[in-house]
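User: Sorry, folds how?
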Amino acid sequence: MRKYQLYLIEDEFAAHYFGRERLFFQLFQEHQTADDELKFITQKQISYITKSVEVLKIHQLIQKQLGKMKGFKADHGAYTIFLSGKLSTARLEVFQDLITVEAEGSYEAETAFFEVLRKCESSFLAIDLDHECYGWLKPIKERKFI
């Protein structure tokens, strides 16, 4: 099973650390394994570089864009997509500080959620701590100076 945590990174940090996303991953990984004072410090750092998720906006977008999709189900603020033909399942939950996605099988179900979210905000960073995977839902384009 793949478990993603999606954080909305402040624009200035997203732009500054473009191409060095591993630093974000290391911070979240360190926070997961930290104890006591280090846990407190890493939580402060995470709070500083992330912004709150607009929960209502996310719920509305998901309902609007995926609500009529075959295999889509909403249940008390959590959403599930089950694509039997593709053997793909994903469950999404929205919280104030992050969004979680759990997925199994092929990638189609989680991709449906990711597509909706990437249209909503440009600086969502997805992290799978168990498999050490991470990346932007919508890659940030480097600024070109003429």
